[in-house]
Automatic annotation (TrEMBL):
<protein>
    <recommendedName>
        <fullName>FecR protein domain-containing protein</fullName>
    </recommendedName>
</protein>
């Protein structure tokens, strides 16, 4: 599968989620990775619970149903299927 990159930049809160396409709903299999994070970027696992501030390598792996939010002056580059 082809690698794709998505860059998010937040001036106000921006919310993006890992697409729920066929095969993406399998939990525990990383489907995307946060390659670059600048500023405050938060992740919500499976679209439920508290938002986690990305601060460790474990937070950089994205699974089906995860949501990513960049706050003011924050940016994130996501590599999908890479």
């Amino acid at each position: 599968m082809m690698k794709r990159k998505l860059t998010l930049a937040g001036i106000v809160a921006v919310t993006v989620f890992v697409w729920a396409a066929p095969g993406w709903c399998v939990t525990r299999v990383p489907r995307a990775t946060l390659v670059s994070v600048v500023g405050t970027v938060k992740v919500q696992r499976r679209g439920q619970g508290a938002w986690l501030t990305v601060s460790t390598e474990a937070h950089r792996s994205l699974y089906g149903g995860d949501h990513v939010r960049t706050l003011q002056r924050g940016t994130a580059t996501i590599s999908i299927d890479g």
